[in-house]
Design goal:
By secondary structure, the chain is an alpha/beta fold. It is built from eleven helices and 14 strands. The protein has an eight-stranded mixed beta sheet with strand order 6-7-8-3-9-10-12-11, with helices on both faces. A four-stranded antiparallel beta sheet has the order 2-1-4-5. Helix 8 links the parallel strand 7 and strand 8. It is globular. The mean pLDDT is 87.
Length: 329
């Protein structure tokens, strides 16, 4: 097995709110191999973004707090680093594309100024060198007349172009890892496809590893090699992409795939929905967090939270029930 580029173990993150402590991430463990694309899927509030923001030291404290866990990157624990140390990692070695391109760019600074900053800070370029490189980066992500656009402000760019700028910023220092937090959510489907194709091309050209956070399993199918499915702050299934689609094993994953339109569907198949609502995480679950919404739930599911168990090569699931037979696993 290749050595892991990023190795996260037992990550727990909480938030203090007026209504109580929210247990947003509950003992998450995963690894990222060099050059791999890892998809992280699940509905809103399941802990996808908080997990990655925790790894990068971007959780505001207070109200957020990383209670436990490790995140080793090139042998160093990111969670134990000082603010100054983690700043040297962010942008330079781990780039991040945030969820909303409309609000992630500073509206009062030119695109060129924002692109040049990481080049000056992390690579020690002069302002003139950074300007030349910034134009190259804009051209790389498909912005026409790149040199002339450096003096423009974010409001002069469309949503899709702003997201391209965010990707250029994340790639400015040639990071080993790119974390993309739902980068196509606010964009129409045509622009979504363009951004996805752009990331694929850049991945093959630059050889970087990618963590792609999304709630859209359709995007993951064409982009990732491996997928982790999150629910209620836990990883409930982990598999290669092909095996996940061919052999979904957790009831929640089955529900997600059932709600996805398929071009290979025969006849007029009805899309399914998952009944109920996501869990309120004011208490850390001691039972399966999906039990109230699960048609396969049995007595043990209400008493004990299952751990991730290997059921096939490169396929792990946290479920007490074998959904194919309906019997206890």
């Amino acid at each position: 097995m290749p050595e892991l580029l990023l190795d996260v173990k037992g990550l727990e993150t909480t938030f203090k709110t007026p209504d109580g402590i929210v247990h947003a991430v509950n003992g998450v463990s995963f690894g990222l191999k060099e050059g791999e694309t890892l998809g992280v899927v699940g509905e809103s509030g399941c802990g996808k973004s908080v997990t990655m923001l925790s790894v990068l030291g971007l959780i505001p404290s207070p109200p957020g707090k990383i209670k436990s866990g490790t995140a080793h990157f090139f042998g160093r624990d990111l969670l134990k680093m000082t603010t100054a140390e983690i700043r040297q990692i962010r942008g330079a070695q781990i780039g991040m594309v945030f969820q909303d391109p409309m609000t992630s760019l500073n509206p009062v600074l030119t695109i060129g100024r924002q692109l040049e900053e990481p080049l000056v800070v992390h690579l020690g370029m002069t302002r003139a060198q950074a300007t030349i490189r910034a134009a190259e980066l804009l051209a790389m992500v498909g912005i026409p007349n790149a040199k002339d656009r450096l003096s423009d402000y974010p409001h002069q760019f469309s949503g899709g172009m702003r997201q391209r700028v965010m990707i250029a910023m994340a790639l400015a220092c040639s990071p080993q890892v790119l974390i993309a937090d739902e980068p196509t959510t606010a964009l129409d489907v045509t622009i979504q496809a363009q951004i996805t194709d752009l990331v694929k091309r850049l991945r093959s050209e630059l050889g970087m590893a990618i963590i792609w956070i999304t709630h859209d399993l359709g995007v993951v199918a064409g982009l990732a090699q491996r997928v982790i499915v999150m629910y209620g702050g836990f990883i409930i299934e982990e598999s290669t992409v092909n095996d996940l689609y061919a052999n979904p094993t957790h009831p929640y994953t089955i529900g997600l795939l059932g709600s996805l339109p398929r071009v290979d569907a025969s006849g007029h198949e009805t899309l399914t929905s998952i009944e109920g609502s996501p869990p309120l995480l004011y208490e850390k679950p001691t039972r399966c967090p999906f039990a109230p919404r699960c048609k396969w739930a049995m007595e043990r599911c209400w008493k004990e939270n299952p751990t991730l168990e290997t059921i096939a090569p490169d396929h792990r699931v946290a479920c007490w029930v074998d959904v194919k037979t309906g019997r206890a696993r």
